[in-house]
Amino acid sequence: MPEQLTNGQYHTVYNLLSLVIAAQLFTSIYLLVVQPRVLPRYRQALVVAAIVCGIAAYHYFRIFDSFRGAFVTDAVGGQGTYTQAAGSAFNEGYRYVDWLLTVPLLLVELVVVLALAKKLQTSLLVRLIPASALMIALGYPGEISGDNLTRNVFGLLSTIPFLYILYVLFVELTRSLDRQPPAVRQTVSRLRILLFATWGVYPIAYLLPLLGLDGADAWVGKQAGYSIADILAKALYGLLIYRIARLKSFADDPAFAEVEGGHDQAVSHEHLDEGQPKAAKVGR
Amino acid sequence: MPEQLTNGQYHTVYNLLSLVIAAQLFTSIYLLVVQPRVLPRYRQALVVAAIVCGIAAYHYFRIFDSFRGAFVTDAVGGQGTYTQAAGSAFNEGYRYVDWLLTVPLLLVELVVVLALAKKLQTSLLVRLIPASALMIALGYPGEISGDNLTRNVFGLLSTIPFLYILYVLFVELTRSLDRQPPAVRQTVSRLRILLFATWGVYPIAYLLPLLGLDGADAWVGKQAGYSIADILAKALYGLLIYRIARLKSFADDPAFAEVEGGHDQAVSHEHLDEGQPKAAKVGR
């Protein structure tokens, strides 16, 4: 944590943290409210997605307050600098507690929404959940250490379960995607790329101190990186899970698609090649 | 932000901010509760409208607290002046964070409630959403800058996506309105005018400092303008979306209209020219 932040740096972090609270809180509410928009068999995935965003919103309330309490300012009317407050420090630990709970649940969302055979689902979960928890737990000792060697060692150890998760998602899961409707396959592919890209931000932010970037700018960059990655990896990810649940509901039950006004969508992806007249479904 | 506010100026802003909280919070609750009043295919639009008002309510709670913390007073018994508090400042950034999330969603509401063909809907959304996010993001650097040239440049850049959005809404969307029931066409027209009129308030408030109006009165005027525009552009707008969803539900399904007591309304717009006796339907 830097000793001093400029007015601009302070408010960049301040407003980003508030943005994350709003994004997580209202994505969580949204995912709970839209449950009737998917078939019952896909609601479990939506509930887990909503819980993930709710847990993140809680931790960002804490992070926001921790950040506000960690600095004092001589600012009047919006100009001035922000200095470390005595007897207080920004608690990075909230992030690790959040990830320890939410990262395994993010993998649960993905596996559950696909509604795979129970045996395959169990096999995926018993490997993904412990691996993801281990990944977070191994990162923490490095994060709180001021020593670069410790940071290196735990960073490296944490990468092993990360690579294992990627292997399971990109190799093993791919085999089971053949049975999914084409639009679902496409969205799942996007979801994995989103997961890979956003989870990649965390190790980069983690490694910033190793690159000698330890000033106020690097610290602000790390907070911004974690914040934006959390929005993408939880809120946007949850909305994509909802999209998969919608598409699968429409594919499973044409009558449901008709009532929901999604028949056009289901048709366009599922049966268009069968020559059904698409225009007739529009606007019903 | 002015150095001093009179008792009247302070309480004008204070009470307006509280009015916005009440308007957004209860419009949000209303829009969630009335979901069964429209057909399932239109509920998505209502949920998004409710989320928009909820996000606005959250940010106005923050804005309200920020405003209260930014001033100290020597007032006793309701008389006195309000002076900038040391170590605190009113955070205008909350408004931009709010708009960044809500403005794209306002356009989603409008497109989703029309239940257009999926292809057209996607084509509208992939242009409107990035344009609206860009419009807000480009306004922010000008808003926080004390420099008039910077304010001018970013204000001008922000106008480009704004004009593009108006083009899409008033030219491209018009073509697809022909298939909508007459009452829906009329409400959509009103909605676009509301959108145009209220979104026009934001650049005017933005430009006040350029006009040399930078005293306490201008600042109070800006806060009042933003607050009233936010009520019209989110809460009233959401209620008009609900009206469109109701009219379309009645037009789609006469049996639903009958149960909801809206058959008279649907008939008067849809089938009046077919010579059906209107009076017989009233009050059922």
Automatic annotation (TrEMBL), chains A, B:
<dbReference type="GO" id="GO:0005216">
    <property type="term" value="F:monoatomic ion channel activity"/>
</dbReference>
<feature type="transmembrane region" description="Helical">
    <location>
        <begin position="45"/>
        <end position="61"/>
    </location>
</feature>
<keyword id="KW-0716">Sensory transduction</keyword>
<keyword id="KW-1133">Transmembrane helix</keyword>
<keyword id="KW-0675">Receptor</keyword>
<feature type="transmembrane region" description="Helical">
    <location>
        <begin position="99"/>
        <end position="117"/>
    </location>
</feature>
<feature type="transmembrane region" description="Helical">
    <location>
        <begin position="12"/>
        <end position="33"/>
    </location>
</feature>
<feature type="transmembrane region" description="Helical">
    <location>
        <begin position="153"/>
        <end position="173"/>
    </location>
</feature>
<keyword id="KW-0681">Retinal protein</keyword>
<dbReference type="GO" id="GO:0009881">
    <property type="term" value="F:photoreceptor activity"/>
</dbReference>
<comment type="similarity">
    <text>Belongs to the archaeal/bacterial/fungal opsin family.</text>
</comment>
<keyword id="KW-0600">Photoreceptor protein</keyword>
<feature type="transmembrane region" description="Helical">
    <location>
        <begin position="224"/>
        <end position="242"/>
    </location>
</feature>
<keyword id="KW-0812">Transmembrane</keyword>
<dbReference type="InterPro" id="IPR001425">
    <property type="entry name" value="Arc/bac/fun_rhodopsins"/>
</dbReference>
<dbReference type="InterPro" id="IPR018229">
    <property type="entry name" value="Rhodopsin_retinal_BS"/>
</dbReference>
<feature type="transmembrane region" description="Helical">
    <location>
        <begin position="193"/>
        <end position="212"/>
    </location>
</feature>
<dbReference type="GO" id="GO:0016020">
    <property type="term" value="C:membrane"/>
</dbReference>
<feature type="transmembrane region" description="Helical">
    <location>
        <begin position="124"/>
        <end position="141"/>
    </location>
</feature>
<dbReference type="Pfam" id="PF01036">
    <property type="entry name" value="Bac_rhodopsin"/>
</dbReference>
<keyword id="KW-0157">Chromophore</keyword>
<dbReference type="GO" id="GO:0007602">
    <property type="term" value="P:phototransduction"/>
</dbReference>
<keyword id="KW-0472">Membrane</keyword>
<protein>
    <submittedName>
        <fullName>Xanthorhodopsin</fullName>
    </submittedName>
</protein>
